[in-house]
Each structure stands twice: as structure tokens, then as C-alpha cells.
Design a protein that fits this description.
- Helix content is 71%, strand content 9%.
- It has two helices and two strands.
- The chain has a two-stranded antiparallel sheet with strand order 1-2.
- It is rod-shaped and about 110 Å long.
- The longest helix is centred in the middle third of the chain and has 76 residues.
- It has one domain.
- The protein is mostly helical.
- Keywords: Coiled coil.
């Protein structure tokens, strides 16, 4: 069994432990402050990344639109080349890759 302490001994022990408790409380408070600042930093970085992603998406959308315009212009050039006695041959996309599936072949020269 533990010995019983009188009031004076309990108060003396409490006085000895008070500085340790104060240091412990200060340490816990600093950890909470650090945690809060880390959370704020991470939230700010996430917001910045979200802005960068939105800007990237907008830039990508612009590039897609520009590519569509380029493809439209290329189709007009193909239509003009049809008037110059060329034929359009359908090529499977696997052979040409992701670029385009139309290829212009000139007509063979007529035998004289």
C-alpha cells in the first residue's frame, strides 16, 4: 500500500510539479500552433494548385480549339487539292498514330 500524504506534503509536491506542468502546457500549445500553421500552409498550397490546374485546363481548352481550327483549315486544303486531281485514301488510325487519318495520294499520270 501507498503511504498516506498529509496536506503539506501534497502541496509541496504540487509546487514542484507546477513548473513542469507549465512547460508541458507551453509545449502542447506550441505543437497546436505549429499544426495550425502547417494546416494553413497546406490549404494555401492546395488553393494555389487548384488555380494552376484551372489555368492549365483553360490553356488546354484554348489549344484544343486552336487544333480544331487547324484541322478545319487542313480539311479545306484537302478539299482544294481534290480539284487538282488528287484522291483521298482512308488510312487506319493505327498506322498513322494520333495525328490524322487522311492522306493525300496523287493520281498516277495518264498514259499517252
Amino acid at each position: 500500500m501507498l503511504p498516506k500524504l498529509d496536506v503539506a506534503e501534497t502541496e509541496a509536491i504540487t509546487k514542484e510539479l507546477d513548473p513542469i506542468k507549465a512547460i508541458s502546457d507551453a509545449f502542447v500549445q506550441s505543437l497546436e500552433t505549429d499544426r495550425d500553421s502547417i494546416i494553413q500552409t497546406l490549404e494555401a498550397k492546395r488553393e494555389e494548385l487548384d488555380r494552376q490546374i484551372e489555368a492549365w485546363k483553360a490553356e488546354t481548352d484554348k489549344r484544343v480549339e486552336a487544333r480544331k481550327l487547324e484541322d478545319l483549315c487542313a480539311m479545306r486544303v484537302l478539299n482544294r487539292s481534290l480539284n487538282q486531281h488528287s484522291i483521298i485514301c482512308r488510312i487506319p488510325p493505327k498506322l498513322l498514330g494520333p495525328y490524322h487519318s487522311l492522306y493525300i495520294l496523287p493520281l498516277p499520270k495518264a498514259r499517252r
